[in-house]
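Dear colleagues,

As part of the handover before I leave the project, I'm documenting each prediction I ran so the next person doesn't have to rerun anything. This entry is a single chain, and its sequence is reproduced below.
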Amino acid sequence: MPAADRLIVPLDVPTLDAAMGWVERLPDVTFWKVGLELFVGAGPRVLTELRQRQKQIFLDLKLHDIPNTVAGACRAVDAVELMTVHAAGGMQMLQAAVAAFGDRGDRPRLLAVSVLTSLDARALAFELRVPLELPDYALQMALLARDAGIDGAVCSPREVAQLREVCGKDFLLVCPGVRPRGSNIGDQRRVMTPAEAIRAGADYLVIGRPIVAAPDPVAAWQQVCAEVDAAL
C-alpha cells in the first residue's frame, strides 16, 4: 500500500461540522478514525457522512463490556473498515464480538486494544497491579485476541516487532503513539517515529496532533507521507 493508505488521522473533535471541516481541509486523507468524543457527540451520522465522501473508517470505541452487550454493539455497526474492542474483556467477550458479524461479507476487521499507549510500565505495575512486564502483557493480550479469532491488535509501536514475530504476518497491527521526529509527545508514553514504526512491522499508523495541530496541516500530512514512503 502507498503511504497515504497506511495513515489514519483521528477526528478528535466534538461535532459533525468540525469533523467534516477537517475532511474538507485534508482532502488527500483517505482513512479517518472516529473515536469516543466524536461518536458520542455526533452519533452514527458521522459514519454516513464519511462513507458518502468515499472515506475509509476506523471506528475506535474500544468496546469493553459483558459478551452479550459487546455482541449487540457489533451487530449494530455498519460499513466501517476497522473497529476496536478491548482485549482485557477476555476470551468470551472477544469471541462474542467475532461471532456477532457471522459471515457478513462487509464486516469490519476487528482489532483488540492491547495496552493503552498512555500507560507506561509504572502505571501497569503500581496502578493496575498487573504482574507482567509491559511488553509481555501486550503480547499476552495480542495472543488472546488472535486465539479468539480477532483480526489484529492496536499496540504501541514499541511492541510491534515482537507482536509481528510471534503473531505472524497476517495479524493486523495498528499503531497510535506515532510522532514525527521533534513533535510533542503529549500524553503518549511509548512512541516511535513513523519510519521506525513501519520498519518495525506496523500495518497502519494513527497520527493526529502532529498533523491537525501543525501550523500547516496539509504540509504536515505531506511530510509524514514522505517519511513513510521512504521507509517502505
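The two ends are 9 Å apart (CA to CA). The first strand starts at residue 7 and ends at 10.

All the best with the project,
I.
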